[in-house]
Amino acid sequence: MPAFLAYAPQGADKGIAMAFFGKDELGKQTELRKENLPRHVAIIMDGNGRWAQRRGMPRTFGHKAGVEALREIIRHSSDLGIEALTIYAFSTENWKRSVEEVGALMGLLLEYFTKELEELHREHVRIRILGDIDAMPKGLERQQAALHAAMARTRENTGLQLNIALNYGGRQEIVWAARKLAKRVAAGELSPEEISMDVFAGELYTSGLPEVDLIIRTSGEMRLSNFLLYQCAYAEFYKTDILWPDFDQKAYDEALLSYAKRNRRFGGV
Ligand code: IPE
Ligand code: IPE
Ligand code: MG
Asked: Which residue would you say has higher pLDDT here, 166 or 137?
């Protein structure tokens, strides 16, 4: 290490070393190779409303455009061979929005699942809904049935694991896991000492999926908004100012490239 770096922050020498590799070497190191890809990507698709407002259109216009962006991102994830993609479609807090907006969003989801289901199935995509879909307000029975049908139809698929967080809340998920474990203890099936991190994670919606490696949020916001609180403990965070309807394959590749360059330490050195 050059003497002038003796007092530099840890890791600064690595930056210098990278610079010495030259452009090509650096490019080779960071291209989107399979081994550099995240196994599990989570996306907070945000900014649909602002995207529409900037065009003088109602918020629902933005949600419609958002579904198109989602279609492209799902396809690209599947093509790249990413194992799991979890997208935040509707939070337990999103019920605070107007009846019109909620209705439009649910309608779009129903349309998406009925129109795309066969194609996703052909691509071997497995669909899972994370969230409390059975506790939706009355009038959404068709949506509920479509979601259950999509899960049942694709259950055996071994391609991209596509998880749609719908009526999802991270705190609720954790509290419910605790409740389910408490019931198992009360029933004598499990002793409190047997509750390990693995056992706990087994009661979450994401049971059986790999840890989240990369979490992406669009529209410049920098908060988790109650998304995958347990699963993102060591996820790499990526934010972009791009609004969700404009988030395309190129923007996604940039996020994946940024991830490929990260140095994940998990508390080590
Ligand atoms: C994200 O876009 C989509 C959902 C929450 C379903 P928003 O609707 O939150 O758009 P902004 O953040 O208001 O622009
Ligand atoms: C998070 O976005 C939820 C979804 C993307 C579905 P919000 O727009 O609801 O989050 P806040 O209100 O800005 O935190
Ligand atoms: Mg928002």
From this structure: 166
Name the residue among 265, 158, 214 with its Cα closest to residue 38. Answer: 214
What single-letter amino acid sits at 235? A
- Tell me which residue has its CA closest to atom 10 in ligand 2: 225
Q: Establish if 145 belongs to a structural domain.
A: yes
The residue whose CB lies within 8 Å of the most ligand 1 atoms, and thus the one to mutate among 43, 45, 48, 68, is 48
Q: Locate the ligand 1 atom nearest the alpha carbon of residue 52 and give its number.
A: 14
Strand order in the sheet with 40-44: 126-130, 161-168, 84-91, 40-44, 214-217, 236-239
Residue 32's Cα: distance from chain center in Å?
19
Q: Averaged over 91-100, what is the pLDDT?
A: 96
Asked, for residue 174, whether it belongs to a domain, the answer is no
Mutate to test the pocket of ligand 2, among 70, 87, 91 (most ligand atoms within 8 A of CB): 91
Sorting pLDDT into bands at 50, 70 and 90, what band is 139? confident
In 92-240, which ranges are continuous DSSP H helix?
99-122, 141-154, 170-186, 197-201
In a domain, 238, yes or no: yes
CATH of residue 238: 3.40.1180.10
Average pLDDT of every residue of the chain: 89
| Domain assignment of residue 145, given as a range | 39-169+212-260
Catalytic residues: 46, 94
Residue 47 lies in a domain: yes
Nearest CA to ligand 2 atom 8: 46
Q: Looking at the 3D structure of the chain, how many domains does it have?
A: 1
Q: Provide the percentage of residues in the chain whose pLDDT is more than 70.
A: 88
| For the CA of 101, the nearest atom of ligand 1 | 8
Tell me how far the alpha carbon of residue 47 lies from the centroid of ligand 3, in angstroms. Answer: 5
Q: Which segment of 111-115, 226-230, 255-259 scores lowest on mean pLDDT? A: 111-115
